[in-house]
Design brief:
Distance between the termini: 84 Å
Number of domains: 1
Radius of gyration: 32 Å
Structural class: mainly alpha
Shape: rod-shaped
């Protein structure tokens, strides 16, 4: 009877130990997921900031180009004026010097 009780107690201790190990592994996995989520959020924030900086740089490039081409009174990045602006610039400059993209009038 004592042997059976000791064996049951040993099995119970092993089960509890395994259960605690499983809990620790789950905690580690959750921490890893949280770290990945935080990294993704950080990356998205940096990406958004970079996009804002690039937009600003594109506007500066457009402003400089417009001033060099003596073009005035054009609202930057106004979709209605982009096509005519492209034609005006292409007529003033070598076509190989200007790169247009779908998203912006200029691409750096």
């Amino acid at each position: 009877m004592i042997s059976l009780a000791q064996e049951t107690q040993t099995q119970l201790h092993q089960t509890i130990k395994q259960f605690n190990q499983n809990i620790n592994e789950i905690k580690d996995a959750l921490n890893n997921i949280t770290n990945v989520e935080n990294s993704i959020i950080h990356y998205q924030t940096l990406n958004n900031q970079l996009e804002l900086i690039l937009d600003f740089i594109r506007k500066i490039v457009m402003t400089i180009t417009l001033s060099k081409a003596n073009i005035t009174n054009i609202e930057l990045f106004d979709i209605n004026q982009i096509n005519s602006l492209q034609e005006i610039l292409l007529s003033k400059y070598d076509k190989k010097q200007i790169i247009f993209s779908d998203r912006y009038p200029f691409k750096l």
